[in-house]
Design a protein that fits this description.
CATH class: Mainly Alpha
CATH architecture: Orthogonal Bundle
Shape: globular
Distance between the termini: 62 Å
Strand content: under 5%
Number of strands: 2
Length: about 450
């Protein structure tokens, strides 16, 4: 005999799982976009880092990314999200609080027609990738146990401040009208400056590693780069918090700028070095993705092409010419060149946003005409002062994020150094993964196997 149907609980309304304020399409896209961004880190940057370093550092580099992803999630739901988007505590910080109760998670979020649970997840993947980008600057020598301490501390005392100041409706830079569509400031400028600062405090790799650090698997690195590029569809396409025409524009602009930037970088390599570098192409791809991020849905397609030309040439020049001629810059060992690919490209994108942001598109995203006007449109409208005001705010945001991350990252590294060395010993750095984790990335016959008596 079949079991009798279980009666619907009398204390629950039949439509409570899909309340009237929720838009199912928006919620579905937001969850999808968040997952695309998450895949940029796991496995995207895991593959890019694991394939882009020396063989002896493949496991450690990939593991730093995996650890950061997991650690950030736990910190995010316990206190980080509310510090970034919750009730204002001070002009640049929210009140720390957990985001775990159903009473909170099932309510409508602060912006968008979907629940807080979706927003917490969406914002988590942005926080996680920021820490993983920072790791790129210190690969090949940072003590893993120091990294384990660094991740929660930096998330708490740097990322949450930048996110609240710029993205929270209660943040002071948000109220001033700073344009940061999807994280050129909060994520990339922050990661680039923090990574470079951390690299200064950690110290350099072994001299022979600095002189020659070839990727152990370029195809694996390209696979990670491909996931990074395609995942950016969710990175920029998810930030309107609605399935809209602006989201579609942001996605298209993202790919236009990235393709342009990659082609410009490859062309410059070919003209000045005689060879088109695969690694250079990946660098150009990344700078294009970073540059368009603060402007993705507020500029027109022709502006995205111009931004791609700039992002493929200016960071190329700072990396290939300025860096190689500057003794000061070379004193800091930035393994994956995050200063150029993220800090400089992010700042460039922020400035270009202040030039090319179209009022009509800003209205679609911010629902305000008066506060967001690119300088070129200010000239066209006969309101030059508004355009210059926008440029001023964009520059203020750069100064704020740079200052915040130099100070916070330095203090965090100094505190960690009181308890544990930031840098591995030279002996461990000679060996690499096997000394740190007891594991190797690639084991040919007989390698990596342990006999009963030891190795």
């Amino acid at each position: 005999m079949a079991d009798a149907p279980v009666p619907f609980p009398s204390n629950l309304a039949p439509n409570e799982a899909s309340p009237g304020w929720m838009n199912k399409g928006d919620n579905a896209w937001q969850l999808t976009a968040a997952t695309l961004v998450g895949m940029q880190s796991v496995p995207g940057l895991i593959l890019l880092y694991g394939g882009g370093v020396k063989k002896k550092w493949a496991v450690n580099s990939a593991f730093m990314a995996l650890y950061a992803f997991a650690c950030v999630l736990l910190c995010w739901v316990c206190w980080g999200y509310r510090m970034s988007f919750g009730t204002r505590y001070v002009p640049f910080w929210g009140v720390p609080n957990a985001s775990l109760g159903n009473g909170f998670l099932l309510e409508q979020t602060f912006s968008g027609k979907f629940p807080n649970a979706t927003m917490v997840y969406f914002q988590f993947v942005f926080a996680a990738i920021t820490l993983i980008l920072i790791a790129g600057a210190v690969l090949g020598r940072m003590n893993f146990y120091a990294w384990m301490m660094f991740v929660p501390l930096w998330l708490t005392f740097s990322y949450t401040i930048g996110a609240f100041s710029i993205w929270s409706p209660n943040g002071f830079l948000f109220k001033k009208g700073l344009i940061d569509y999807s994280g050129g400031y909060v994520i990339h400028l922050s990661a680039g400056v923090a990574g470079y600062t951390a690299a200064f405090w950690v110290g350099p790799r072994l001299t022979k590693d600095r002189e020659r650090f070839p990727p152990n698997n370029i195809l694996l690195m390209l696979m990670g780069a491909g996931l990074l590029w395609m995942g950016w569809t969710g990175f920029n396409g998810g930030d309107p918090y609605v399935v809209s025409t602006d989201a579609s524009l942001a996605v298209l602009n993202t790919h236009i700028c990235t393709a342009t930037s990659l082609l410009v970088w490859v062309k410059l390599d070919l003209v000045f070095f005689g060879k088109s570098s695969v690694i250079g192409a990946v660098q150009g791809m990344i700078t294009g993705l970073v540059c368009i991020t603060p402007a993705a849905g507020v500029v027109q397609g022709w502006a995205a092409i111009i931004m791609g030309i700039c992002s493929g040439s200016i960071p190329w020049f700072t990396m290939m010419v300025v860096h190689k001629r500057s003794e000061l810059l070379q004193k800091v060992d930035d393994t994956m060149a995050v200063l150029h690919t993220h800090a400089i490209a992010g700042a460039l994108g922020g400035i270009l946003s202040g030039l090319f942001a179209k009022p009509r598109l800003n209205y679609l995203f911010y629902a305000s005409y008066g506060e967001y006007v690119g300088l070129f449109y200010g000239f066209d409208m006969g309101k030059i002062h508004i355009g210059f005001r926008q440029i001023g705010i964009q520059l203020l945001g750069i100064v704020y994020i740079v200052t915040l991350n130099i100070i916070s990252t330095s203090l965090i590294c100094i505190v960690i150094k009181l308890f544990i060395p930031l840098r591995m010993s030279d002996e461990d750095m000679e060996i690499g993964d096997e000394a740190i984790h007891g594991e190797e990335a690639y084991a040919i016959w007989g390698e990596g196997e342990k006999s009963e008596g030891g190795r």
